[in-house]
UniProtKB/TrEMBL annotation, chains A, E:
PROSITE patterns recorded: ABC_TRANSPORTER_1, ABC_TRANSPORTER_2
UniProt keyword annotation of Nuclease present: no
InterPro entries assigned to the protein according to its UniProt record, in alphabetical order: AAA+_ATPase (IPR003593), ABC_transporter-like_ATP-bd (IPR003439), ABC_transporter-like_CS (IPR017871), ABC_transporter_ATP-bind (IPR050166), P-loop_NTPase (IPR027417)
GO MF annotations, alphabetized: ATP binding; ATP hydrolysis activity
CDD domains linked to this entry: ABC_NrtD_SsuB_transporters (cd03293)
Domain ABC transporter: 16-247
Domain of life: Bacteria
Protein name in UniProt: ABC transporter ATP-binding protein
Keyword list, A-Z: ATP-binding, Nucleotide-binding, Transport
UniProtKB/TrEMBL annotation, chain C:
Domain ABC transmembrane type-1: 84-277
Record-level GO cellular component terms: plasma membrane
Protein family according to the UniProt entry: Belongs to the binding-protein-dependent transport system permease family.
Major localization class: membrane
Transmembrane segments: 90-114, 126-148, 210-233, 253-276
Zinc in keyword set: no
GO biological process per UniProt: transmembrane transport
Alphabetically ordered keywords of this record: Cell membrane, Membrane, Transmembrane, Transmembrane helix, Transport
PROSITE patterns: ABC_TM1
Bilayer topology term: Multi-pass membrane protein
Protein name: ABC transporter permease
UniProtKB/TrEMBL annotation, chain D:
Protein name in the entry: ABC transporter permease
Keywords: Cell membrane, Membrane, Transmembrane, Transmembrane helix, Transport
Domain of life: Bacteria
Keyword Ubl conjugation listed: no
GO biological process: transmembrane transport
UniProt xrefs under Gene3D superfamilies: MetI-like (1.10.3720.10)
């Protein structure tokens, strides 16, 4: 296991070179991504942070083949994003939980499994396992609107974990939650990441969140979205919540804030 | 058995008693015919139905049939059970109408949908414009009933001797309140309720044979109805799917209808035909038909049927 | 529900009061006319009594209509041609057939519009234009023409119903099938779902609330179609035929009872859809 | 046979053209061209079916015949248009929608009335009101007044229900905001609730356009002067002048579409701010 | 001016005693506020913080006479909230900007002025002034949907400032914004408060925000909403953004977090 793991880390999971993306809109072209270069390795936890509208979501969508770059190249596991998508390499978590109101929590988690043609017994087993993982066992039969926002968000993460995607892309998954709940989910996410060794791409607006979670923090500038800074975290993999009060943490947070502020025009 | 579909001109009522009697009493069956009677309605054009192949034989008024013939739909009269016209214009005395001369400036209710031709030729004979004004008459498209005269919206409405006239009476106006102008009396009568088929079909001997049987059985029905008016009315009532007809009204209608069919054995009287055509041709600037039709009737069927 | 009980009752009561009052106003002229002809003078109470008891009133009083409905539903055998239940049944059957046809056509078109770009761009304007054709006015012609091509009986009426009822279904279903947001569609994409999986697992379930809202309108429209389709078919049978026959013979009481019956039928049908809607959406967790 | 082949070719060409057009980037031109091509294709197919199968003009006239009749009868068509649309439909529409609007404002003022009238209104809006046509013709006579009355009755309830709903459409936060300004009933109505109700009101107005035209035309079946679109349609069917019938239908379709389109344009201008209109 | 000001500080602007509020719902009564006692003085900047659903919004609404307490008493400027509302004492800013989409930014800000019967020229002058204040000059003619979320929020604040309400109630006004924009608006709000000496009630989910802005922080517990802690800020009135890295700031933040966590159940 560890040998294979080390082997895989050699080739980057995601590798973007000179990525550009321009949207054609009624008001003229919008240059969302400009000359983006980035490599993400197996097992990385990479956060993307930047002012609103800078292209974080767009970048994540390009990785997941939800958007085609207008220039540059990107490979995922050595192949194109489209091929990677067809091999179901992605678990994607959106900002809003986006659970289907007409399906129970269990049914929601089962949905991608049904689509991917897992057997019934395999489905059951997996649903049970991920529900355990996000501590929602017992809520399988409930409907989404019977759960709090935090629980819904956990269910939506469980849904992305239910099948064996080795890349997890999360677009501001905790944006709508209050700070306490958010702290708690952050902790759980870290544990989960440690346990599964997935590669995670994570968009956030919160500096502490980015610093707390990531092995690398990618700071982006306002439109046209460029990568202005990539900060390697010096924090250990094991991170209690208290770590946020250490000078090391504050130092990294400060660097991120400076990076952000440099690119921010204040007239949003 | 041979299938025959008959399209009526109007809803099921004693006006069509002969056919229902023939059906009910088995006269058609005796001839080896399997007859379907399709009731008509306010917006069913029998000519259109036969053109579309929805019926083998239709009942229509001659003006409308001749007009259709001019439009290129070759209808031929094969039998004429109704000898005289039942059409009249019924007016309220209190509207100031005593003679046709009083029509000027009045509002008259008229049936359209191909039934307007007799009225139009009468008016053109009188020399009245139908466009309103002091020198003409204002025409209303009369709906399904006689409301306009009851409510004073029209001075006169179109009625049939056997039907609408009695509705006015039933509604509470007495014959003394009314003046009636029968088309017969005004010399503008046209033939009503003849049997018409498509000219092309008559080239087929089998079809002709079928029609002979049909006309024979139908006339038998009519004569039976004339002799047993009350029973005939009850047969009609049994066949009314809408359940809206009343016994009293149908019996009275049968009595009046019998007067109109009495003079006919089923064969068209060429004199009546000529009179109808003359009246339709005389329509001034806008006659109903522009030239005398050819081959619009035949005795071929009745000759065989009635001998 | 309970909160609106009293207000609704009040409004309905007000309608009845107004109805009786209108009956007096509208029928008084005839009553006076008759009295004058008979040479008698009517007192006010006699006048009121007369206006509420005429044979062919301009506006029949509610109790007259109620009596007629009672007579033609309860006291007649259902198979009798004079039974309103019989006629309602006939209208109901073509309404339902037309409704089913319209729903199928509507959903089919909506699916086409949502999944096919050419249809999306070309069909919708014509669907809207189609509804500006006064189908009701040409219903008789349609029936005759359909007869000509061998379609007769229930179907021609049902086709008119269908023509009226498919429209709300198309409009509602296009909206409904498009109601999943971009995110949900993208999610399906990340799972590499096929078009049919996308349809059955996402688009169709999301469209349910829209579907039911449209079905209610479609049902009402379908009934209108069936009634109007019956008007010209020779006053054979059905509520439309009753309406026409009543009108033909000036039987206002009969017209009103057919009308009320049609209204009750519409209300029942719409209520049934409402019920199905409530049950389905509840089971889907969407109510 | 030749005509049938022509029809098939027309269909293939039209479809192919549209497939090609729809692949082009979406623009106003393609958005217009595609449905037009679709419509022309339909007409060509219709024409070739009528000619190819020799369908009697008494049943279904060809588009070319209808067009010919349309051009030849503009006088009649105009007279009918004035009678049915301008006098009957339009006056009934204006009066019915206006009355419904005012009623809605009054009803909205009194929650008791609203709670009582809304279910009843919803109920009535779903009824086959068109069945009232013979009665209204009996009450209001033969001329356009009875047609207008039918239209009034038909449009009143859909409009009422939509307007009342629209007046309720403000969210709690917007109303609370007005409350913090200590704004009175009429001010709130004018500044908040009426503007917010506009999308609903226009929804009602749009539904009412089609109802108005249908109502006015169908009512003419139960009695009319000797002009009007409904009169002409029924009379011409009786005279087997089907080309004139279809010419009237074309007028109705054009008028209906224009009426609807006009209201939709007005809606766009008034509710330019609504997400559905920003497009 | 300062004399009058000192005079006013004596009597509390808002004084709540034994406030209780129970909503009657279909699922039974919801006890949203329980035994709430609080005094707010003239010129105070009071933040309310607490877990979701604890009654922060409800409390603010009670102050503004948008909700009636079921028990207890509350006075505003010595009179009932209703009377205070009728004298137009409140500027209320909701979480969502809640601008009327059919009015331009200028028209939205003008709305309360029209309602309160300011003269046309006065209206113009005030609209111009507050647009300047929130740095939106030049956007007067734009419609709300043509502006970014942050700009809309600023416009909604401008609307609440356009008339002379001396109490400003703000319900999570910056909840939907990204951190940088939020920092910026926080700074501006503080400046504005310093300039106008308004009394401000402010609901937030963010601990740093609460600490950075307030003179007092009211910590509330989950349902039934009670006040569990009132923390007086020891920070000076003059607060640069950097103050957030001082130990004093972190100390207060820590106290708030502890207070919050004490009341939090962690199960959602
Ligand atoms: N489908 C699209 N069409 C046109 N423009 C788009 C589209 N998607 C995004 N954009 C524009 O591209 C830019 C980048 O958008 P993106 O959503 O990636 O930003 P973001 O960094 O995720 O912002 P936020 O933090 O607000 O989510 C924005 O200016 C946005 O308006
Ligand atoms: N109108 C109402 N009817 C019934 N219950 C209500 C109503 N308004 C609020 N509540 C309930 O009262 C409680 C307090 O609500 P409130 O909105 O004040 O919470 P909050 O602290 O503002 O929460 P959040 O941080 O999520 O905005 C909640 O449980 C809520 O569900
Ligand atoms: C719309 C309408 N059109 C024609 C007639 C006339 N009509 C044709 S056959 C027939 C038989 C008599 O009862 C009558 C009256 C009508 N009444 N209503
Ligand atoms: Mg984003
Ligand atoms: Mg709140």
């Amino acid at each position: 296991m560890t040998a294979a793991q080390a082997n895989e880390t050699a080739a980057p999971v995601i590798s973007a070179k000179g990525l550009n993306l321009t949207f054609q809109t009624n008001d003229g072209p919008v240059h969302a991504l400009k000359d983006v270069n980035l490599e993400i390795n197996k097992g990385d936890f990479v956060s993307f942070i930047g002012p609103s509208g800078c292209g974080k979501t767009t970048f994540l969508r390009v990785m997941a083949d939800l958007e085609k770059p207008t220039a540059g190249s990107i490979t995922v596991n050595g192949v194109s994003p489209e091929e990677a998508r067809k091999t179901r390499a992605y678990g994607y978590v959106f900002q809003h939980a986006g659970l289907y109101p007409w399906r129970t929590i269990g049914g929601n988690i089962r949905l991608p499994l049904e689509i991917m043609g897992y057997t019934k017994s395999d489905q059951d087993e997996r649903v049970k396992r991920v529900l355990d993982l996000v501590e929602l066992s017992g809520f399988e039969k409930k409907f989404p609107w019977q759960l709090s926002g935090g629980m819904q968000q956990r269910a939506s993460i469980a849904r992305a974990l239910a099948f064996d995607a080795d890349i997890l892309l999360m677009d501001e998954p905790f944006g709508a939650l209050d700070e306490i709940v958010r702290d708690h989910l952050n902790e759980q996410l870290l544990q989960l990441w440690a346990r599964t060794n997935k590669t995670i791409g994570f968009v956030t607006h919160s500096i502490p969140e980015a610093v707390y979670l990531s092995t690398r923090i990618v700071v982006m500038s306002p439109r046209p979205g460029r990568i202005t800074d990539v900060i390697e975290s010096t924090l250990p993999r094991e991170r209690p919540l208290d770590i946020r009060d250490t000078p090391e943490f504050l130092e990294i947070a400060h660097r991120v804030r400076e990076g952000l502020r440099a690119g921010h025009a204040y007239d949003d | 058995a041979d299938q025959v579909t008959l399209q009526l001109k109007w809803v099921t009522q004693a006006q069509f008693a002969g056919y229902y009697v023939a059906l009910d009493k088995g006269f058609y069956a005796e001839e080896g015919l399997d007859v379907t009677i399709k009731p008509g309605g306010p917006d069913i054009a029998p000519a259109q139905v036969i053109a579309g192949g929805g019926a083998d034989v239709v009942l229509d008024w001659m003006p409308s049939a001749l007009a259709s013939r001019e439009k290129g739909l070759a209808l031929v009269n094969i039998a004429q059970p109704f000898k005289s016209s039942g059409m009249m214009l019924t007016c309220r005395k209190d509207a100031g109408v005593a003679s046709p001369a009083d029509f000027k400036g009045k509002t008259l209710g008229v049936w359209f949908f191909g039934n307007e031709y007799p009225f139009l030729s009468w008016m053109s004979k009188l020399g009245y414009s139908t466009e309103g004004g002091a020198d003409g008459v204002t025409v209303l498209k009369q709906g399904f009933n006689v409301d306009p005269i009851l409510q004073g919206q029209a001075a006169c409405v179109s009625t049939m001797t056997y039907n609408e006239y009695w509705q006015i009476i039933d509604a509470g106006l007495s014959p003394d309140d009314l003046v009636v102008f029968k088309y017969e009396d005004q010399g503008v009568a046209t033939l009503e309720d003849g049997m018409y088929v498509l000219e092309d079909n008559l080239k087929d001997p089998a079809f002709v044979e079928k029609m002979v049987k049909f006309v024979r059985a139908s006339m038998k029905g009519w004569k039976w109805a004339e002799e047993n008016p009350d029973d005939a009315a009850m047969i009609v009532l049994d066949n009314d799917a809408s359940g809206a007809q009343t016994e009293a009204h149908q019996k009275r209608m049968m009595g009046e209808v019998a007067k109109l069919t009495a003079g006919s054995n089923g064969a068209l009287d060429p004199a009546d035909y000529e009179r109808t055509v003359a009246s339709l041709l005389s329509g001034g600037s806008d006659p109903v038909i522009s030239k005398a039709p050819e081959g619009a009737w035949t005795h071929m069927i009745t000759d065989k049927a009635l001998n | 529900m309970r909160k609106s009980f009293l207000p609704v009752l009040t409004v309905v009561a007000a309608i009845f009061v107004l109805w009786y009052a209108m009956a007096v106003v509208l029928n008084a002229a005839w009553a006076k006319d008759q009295a004058k002809r008979a040479g008698v003078e009517l007192s006010f109470s006699e006048l009121v009594a007369d206006t509420w008891a005429q044979d062919k009133p301009k506006l029949p009083a509610p109790h007259q209509v109620a009596a007629e409905i009672w007579e033609t539903t309860v006291e007649k055998k259902i198979t009798s041609k004079r039974s309103l239940v019989f006629h309602s049944g006939i209208t109901l059957s073509s309404t339902l057939l037309g409704f089913v046809l319209g729903t199928v056509l509507g959903i089919g078109l909506a699916v086409g519009i949502v999944y096919n770009r050419v249809m999306d761009m070309s069909v919708m304007p014509w669907v809207i234009a189609s509804q500006t054709i006064p189908i009701l006015a040409i219903a008789p012609m349609i029936i005759v023409v359909l007869n000509a091509v061998g379609i007769s009986g229930l179907l021609p009426k049902a086709i008119i119903s269908m023509y009226l009822s498919f429209f709300p279904v198309v409009v509602g279903m296009v909206k409904g099938l498009r109601s999943p947001d971009m995110m949900q569609l993208d999610q399906m994409r990340t799972w590499n779902a096929t078009a049919s999986q996308q349809f059955w697992k996402l688009r169709l379930p999301s469209s349910m609330p829209y579907l039911f809202a449209s079905l209610k309108i479609a049902m009402a429209a379908s009934l209108v179609g069936a009634i109007v389709g019956e008007l010209p078919t020779g006053a054979v049978a059905g509520l439309g035929a009753r309406l026409l026959a009543g009108s033909y013979y000036g039987q206002t009481i009969q017209i009103w009872s057919a009308l009320i019956m049609a209204a009750a039928l519409a209300a029942c049908l719409v209520a049934i859809i409402g019920l199905i809607q409530r049950v389905t959406l509840k089971r889907m967790g969407m109510a | 046979m030749g005509w049938i082949v022509f029809g098939v070719i027309a269909w293939a060409l039209g479809w192919g053209l549209n497939v090609w057009l729809s692949r082009l980037p979406r623009s106003r031109a393609t958005g217009l061209a595609v449905p037009v091509v679709f419509g022309i294709t339909l007409l060509l197919i219709w024409e070739s079916i009528v000619r190819g199968f020799g369908i009697s003009p008494v049943l279904l006239p060809a588009p070319s015949a209808i067009a010919g009749r349309f051009v030849a009868s503009t006088g009649i068509l105009w007279e009918d248009f004035v009678q049915t649309v301008l006098k009957g439909a339009l006056s009934g529409y204006v009066f019915g929608c206006g009355a419904a609007f005012l009623t809605a404002v009054v009803v909205d003022r009194f929650p008791f009335l609203r709670r009582g009238l809304l279910p009843v209104g919803n109920f009535v809006a779903a009824l086959p009101i068109i069945g009232m046509a013979p009665i209204l013709v009996m009450w209001f006579g033969f001329d356009w007044q009875s047609k207008a009355a039918v239209v009034v009755v038909m449009v009143f309830f859909p409009m009422l229900v939509n307007t009342v709903e629209g007046l309720q459409a403000t969210d709690a936060m917007q109303r609370d905001l007005m409350r913090t300004y200590a704004s009175g009933y009429w001010t709130t109505l004018r500044k908040l609730r009426l503007p917010a109700a506009m999308p609903f009101i226009f929804n009602g107005l749009k539904i009412a356009t089609t109802l108005a035209l249908i109502g006015a035309i169908v009512a003419e079946f139960f009695g009319s002067p000797i002009r009007g679109m409904g009169f002409r349609i029924s009379t011409s069917v009786g005279q087997l002048a089907l080309d004139l019938v279809w010419a009237e239908i074309v007028v109705a379709a054009i008028v209906g579409s224009a009426f609807y389109g006009g209201v939709a344009l007005l809606e766009k201008a008034v509710t330019f701010w609504h997400p559905s209109q920003r497009g």
